[in-house]
């Protein structure tokens, strides 16, 4: 995730171009699970669902369930940190680790966005949740839209923040479908994880927040070492390989989805350009609203608590 655009022209090739200094496999730099987890305690409760641990954290006890789904490389702590200023009054806020991230696990079988959504839905049902508003950041929006497309009568609405929602085409699709993205992943992230001692993680996160600064305390709270476990490295890599097919499948449902869709996106998002993702997404969704945040980058959810609060209220009152 360097300075390239996940657009219809430059997704795969841009990443490859910025990773040519690497020559080893990223898995070779994975750190032991025990070491990665020693300073990052479980935040909430782990449930066994479909034979696998699923980790979620709950705040509040109101009548409306809000489910937050994190993006690539992160865990639920990212959303907890981002929404610390969000009022929890009259709502139950549920943060979930996607399979393979944080303290949720996945097996070696295929885990596309739909299956990940099924796991999150199973967690919600286990805690007797219903009629949720789904809030997804980046790749998490892909999971939220898969959930909403498959179970439209169970979802109140979706809030996509810096979401990946529109299908690839051209070079981007070619790079994804032919496996060039996997090569790019190896090249770039081997370079990142092999240079941790020289501050590569901080630099990587800094690119994600640009043009804003990394919020004070974020790196310590998020537990960046969790992303360096072999299981999480594999999960990220696997997610990249299915992205194009998931986008195509979700897109086939868009014109039939009648629930409210709130779209929040940073104007300066270098990773998911506002025009090819947010604006285009808004144009194809029947009941969507778009809010573009001036001078905000890909980590828009950390600077959009007012917009997220307003979107939650709008969806709750939508009829």
Describe the protein in words.
The chain has an eight-stranded mixed β-sheet, with helices on both faces. Strand 1 (45-49) and strand 2 form a beta hairpin. The chain is built from twelve helices and eight strands. 40% of the residues lie in helices and 15% in strands. The chain has a single domain (11-316), classed as Alpha/Beta hydrolase fold, catalytic domain (Rossmann fold). It has 319 residues and is α/β, with parallel strands linked by helices.
Radius of gyration: 18 Å
CATH class: Alpha Beta
What is the CATH topology assignment?
Answer: Rossmann fold
Which ranges are low-confidence, i.e. pLDDT below 50, for 5 or more consecutive residues? 1-23
Mean pLDDT reading: 86
Helix and strand element order: HHEEEHEHEHEHHHHHEHEH
User: Beta-strand percentage?
Assistant: 5-15%
Number of helices: 12
User: Strand order of the main beta sheet, please?
Assistant: 1-2-4-3-5-6-7-8
What's the total number of strands?
Answer: 8
Approximate shape: globular
**Sheet of most strands:** 8 strands, mixed
The named CATH superfamily: Alpha/Beta hydrolase fold, catalytic domain
Q: What is the first-to-last residue Cα distance?
A: 39 Å
What level of helicity do the residues show? Answer: 40-55%
Derived from helix and strand composition plus strand pairing, the structural class reads alpha/beta
Whole-number count of domains: 1
How are the secondary structure elements laid out?
Blueprint: H1 11-17, H2 33-37, E1 45-49, E2 52-59, E3 64-69, H3 76-82, E4 91-96, H4 113-126, E5 133-137, H5 139-150, E6 157-161, H6 170-177, H7 180-193, H8 200-209, H9 218-222, H10 230-254, E7 261-266, H11 275-284, E8 288-293, H12 305-316
Parallel strand pairs: 3-4, 3-5, 5-6, 6-7, 7-8
Antiparallel strand pairs: 1-2, 2-4
Helix pairs in contact: 1-7, 4-5, 5-10
């Amino acid at each position: 995730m360097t300075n390239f655009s996940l657009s219809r022209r430059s997704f795969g090739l841009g990443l490859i171009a910025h990773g040519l200094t690497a020559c080893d496999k990223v898995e070779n730099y994975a750190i032991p699970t025990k070491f990665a987890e020693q300073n990052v305690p479980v935040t909430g409760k782990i449930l066994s669902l479909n034979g696998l641990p699923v980790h979620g954290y709950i705040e509040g006890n109101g009548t409306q369930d809000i489910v937050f789904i994190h993006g690539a490389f992160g865990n639920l702590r990212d959303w907890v940190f981002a929404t610390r200023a969000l009022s929890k009054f009259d709502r139950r806020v549920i943060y979930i680790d996607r399979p393979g991230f944080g303290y949720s696990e996945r097996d070696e079988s295929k885990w596309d966005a739909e299956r990940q959504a099924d796991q999150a839905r199973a967690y919600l049902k286990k805690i007797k949740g219903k009629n949720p508003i789904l809030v997804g950041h980046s790749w998490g929006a892909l999971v939220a839209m898969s959930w909403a497309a498959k179970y439209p009568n169970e979802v109140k609405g979706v809030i996509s923040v810096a979401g990946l929602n529109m299908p690839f085409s051209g070079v981007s699709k070619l790079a994804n479908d032919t496996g060039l993205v996997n090569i790019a992943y190896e090249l770039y992230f081997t370079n990142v994880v092999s240079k941790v001692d020289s501050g590569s993680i901080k630099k990587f996160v800094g690119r994600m927040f640009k043009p804003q600064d990394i919020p004070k305390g974020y790196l310590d709270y998020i537990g960046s070492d969790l992303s360096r476990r072999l299981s999480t490295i594999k999960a990220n890599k696997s997610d990249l390989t299915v992205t194009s097919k998931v986008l195509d499948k979700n897109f086939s449902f868009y014109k039939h989805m009648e629930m409210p869709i709130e779209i929040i996106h940073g104007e300066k998002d270098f990773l998911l350009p506002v025009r090819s993702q947010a604006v285009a997404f808004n144009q194809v969704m029947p009941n969507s609203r778009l809010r573009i945040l001036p001078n905000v980058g890909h980590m828009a959810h950390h600077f959009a608590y007012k917009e997220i609060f307003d979107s939650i209220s709008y969806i709750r009152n939508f009829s």
